[in-house]
Amino acid sequence: MLYGKEHIERYRQTNGAEGHDWNGTTTLLLTTVGRRTGREHTTPLIYRPYGDAYLVVASKGGAETPPDWYLNLRQNPEVEVQVKDKVFKARARTATPEEKPDMWRTMTRAWPDYDEYQKKTSREIPVVVLEPVA
């Protein structure tokens, strides 16, 4: 998480005028349904557009375990995304091995530390594709 609840509140209140641009990159809000609680959870994440979709990385700073939001969307891939003032439903999926190299490069251009995070962990850090649904 970036700077938690304050980030989410300011992002929502200002339609992304505050919170979208963060530390030299850009963030979106991802809302998943908790796999245990069934409650909605929102997380600010660094993203990049990729064709009609959006990419995020389940890095958790290189921790050995994946972030909760990733475990949630694996259980229920129907998510809500907010990019600036645009709020939409999306289906989340993990990039395939064939897709990942180009997507990883796209994301490391947005946040070079992802390469360092990958070196810190034995797990393969996934790139998640958020595909808007009509």
TrEMBL record:
- MF (Gene Ontology): coenzyme F420 binding; oxidoreductase activity
Recorded catalytic activity of this chain's protein: oxidized coenzyme F420-(gamma-L-Glu)(n) + a quinol + H(+) = reduced coenzyme F420-(gamma-L-Glu)(n) + a quinone
| Domain of life, per lineage | Bacteria
A single Gene Ontology CC annotation of this entry is: plasma membrane
One Pfam family hit: F420H2_quin_red
NCBIfam families linked: hi_GC_TIGR00026 (TIGR00026)
Task: Name the protein family.
Answer: Belongs to the F420H(2)-dependent quinone reductase family.
Q: What is this protein called?
A: Deazaflavin-dependent oxidoreductase, nitroreductase family
- Give the taxonomic lineage as stored in the record: Bacteria, Bacillati, Actinomycetota, Actinomycetes, Streptosporangiales
